[in-house]
Automatic annotation (TrEMBL):
This is Oxidoreductase family protein. It comes from Cecembia calidifontis. It holds the Pfam family GFO_IDH_MocA. SUPFAM superfamilies: Glyceraldehyde-3-phosphate dehydrogenase-like, C-terminal domain, NAD(P)-binding Rossmann-fold domains. Residues 46-166 form the Gfo/Idh/MocA-like oxidoreductase N-terminal domain.
Length: 485
């Protein structure tokens, strides 16, 4: 059979269907006779490879497989022990430690790839798969920096593949209900948005560990580092706490904003912000002695993004993490929970307000009594199974192919997830600029912090801060030698 990995996503199905048609005059057995009720023909099954299959990756493997229309033929993880559960659940799948070797050897046998690795590896792994014509499911945040997000967004169209980011709330009914309320004019024109999270729930605002250690035998440390510059192994980084270090993670903002900011973004149809500013929590290591830990994300932050809207006033979009929350709306009763307690979003409008929890769940009009009083027409497509149908939403689109009806019903393709991720990471651009420092020219050992107390002006189409050049070093990172996008 001819290798067709660089042809259209439908080519494998088309080849099988064409072959079946050619043989029809010789012998034909109906599909339901061969497989019985509910049988899924091999031509309608998705062959999947998983990159990062422990922890959250194991959940992604289970979710995709539970669709009943996908088979994992290859698995990849730099940690044998973390991968054990997925490997045992899919004994026929070949196991690899290096995704590059897996793609080189297995690309003819796979249609799609799931990617559930630390943030800093998402882009290179997704791009490698997309360049081979493979559909991709990538955990949130889509990428580690703004440039990578833009490149993956463009790659979706270039390679005509089916994509989905792992923010499952985007498939939920809650965000669709909020879209319908807003389009029906129930809160008027949006004027302000607040989103918040209780994350981080890992160490942040701390110095890089001074003590190094020997990597455990089950972990390939060099492969885990990937595009990041080499550092000796330290304990308590893998498999979870990497989230708090800029070399690998994107902090509380990157971890939760693709969940909590997604609903307002979809409801209001937002694009690139035009400006960003921030304030961050501090750790003091002595009297009037503020700690400076530029390798670590801050313990808390408040980001304000500004969005331009044609013919409307600018929209201010507030993000708060580390337990910081906005003031309670007057319309919310004193004993009513705001959001879901630790996380949530509020959209304020000229005629009212609406609120939801994590993933856009439990949407409420304010005061909450309005929620049961109002009935608007259902205009938005509902994903079968809601948030739990997020994986199947992608699997069905992969089988149907790029440009299909199922493709158009994707909840978080890169055309949507990319700009959302860029806006999320714009907040981190402000935080990184806040920590940028320059030595003073007075012979002292003191520093100036020119990125503090300012607003970054953002040229979204060109991915450039126009009023503070040092910030642009954080738009795109330098990969370790031997790695490229």
């Amino acid at each position: 059979m001819k290798d067709t990995e660089n042809s259209s996503p439908n080519s494998r199905r088309d080849f099988i269907k064409a072959s079946a048609t050619a043989l029809a005059g010789f012998y034909f057995v109906p599909r339901h006779v061969l497989g019985g009720p509910g049988y899924v023909a091999p031509s309608d099954r998705l062959r999947v490879a998983g990159i990062g299959v422990g922890g959250m990756g194991a959940g992604d493997v289970r979710g995709v497989f539970a669709s009943g229309k996908a088979d994992f033929v290859a698995l990849c993880d730099v940690d044998d022990l973390r991968a054990k559960g997925s490997v045992e659940a899919h004994p026929k799948a070949k196991f690899y430690k290096d995704y590059r070797i897996m793609l080189d050897k297995e690309h003819k046998n796979i249609d799609a790839v799931t990617i559930s690795t630390p943030d800093h590896m998402h882009a290179v792994q997704a791009m490698a798969a997309m360049q081979l014509g493979k559909h991709v499911y990538v955990q949130k945040p889509l990428t580690h920096n703004i440039y990578e997000a833009r490149m993956l967004t463009e790659a979706e169209k270039k390679y005509k593949v089916v994509t989905q980011m792992g923010n499952q709330g985007s498939s939920g009914d809650g965000v669709r209900q909020m879209v319908e309320w807003y389009n029906a004019g129930l809160i008027g024109e949006a004027t302000r948005v607040y989103c918040w999270t209780d994350r981080p729930v890992w160490p942040q605002g701390i110095p890089w560990p001074s003590a190094t250690a020997t990597p455990p035998a089950n972990l390939d440390w060099d492969l885990w580092l990937g595009v990041a510059q080499y550092k000796d192994y330290v304990e308590n980084l893998h498999p979870f706490n990497w989230r708090g270090w800029w070399d690998y993670g994107t902090g509380a903002l990157g971890d939760m904003a693709c969940h909590n900011m997604e609903a307002p973004f979809r409801v209001l149809g937002l694009g690139y912000p035009v400006a960003a500013e921030c304030s961050v929590g501090s750790v003091y290591i002595g009297e009037f002695q503020r700690g400076y830990f530029p390798e670590s994300c801050p313990p808390s932050s408040h980001i304000t993004l500004r969005f331009k809207r044609e013919g409307k006033d600018d929209l201010l979009f507030h993000w708060m993490d580390g337990g910081i929350q906005p003031s309670r709306p007057d319309e919310l009763g004193p004993n009513e929970v705001m959001g879901d307690g630790g996380n949530g979003a509020i959209i304020e409008g000229t005629k009212g307000k609406m609120m939801c929890g994590t993933y856009g769940a439990n949407p409420q009009l304010l005061p909450t009594s309005r929620t049961k009083e109002v009935n608007v027409a259902q205009t938005e497509y509902r994903v079968p199974g809601g948030s739990s149908g997020h994986y199947n939403n992608w699997v069905e689109a992969c089988i149907a192919g790029y440009g299909s009806k199922e493709f158009e019903r994707l909840s978080s393709p890169f055309s949507i997830a990319g700009p959302l991720t860029e806006s999320v990471l714009m907040g981190n651009l402000a935080i990184r600029s806040y920590d940028y420092r320059e030595p003073r020219n007075d012979g002292s050992n003191r520093f100036n912090y020119p990125g503090r107390g300012i607003q970054l002006v953002w040229d979204g189409p060109n991915m450039k801060v126009t009023n503070f050049e040092p910030a642009n070093q954080f738009v795109k990172r330098e990969y370790r030698e031997g790695w490229s996008l």
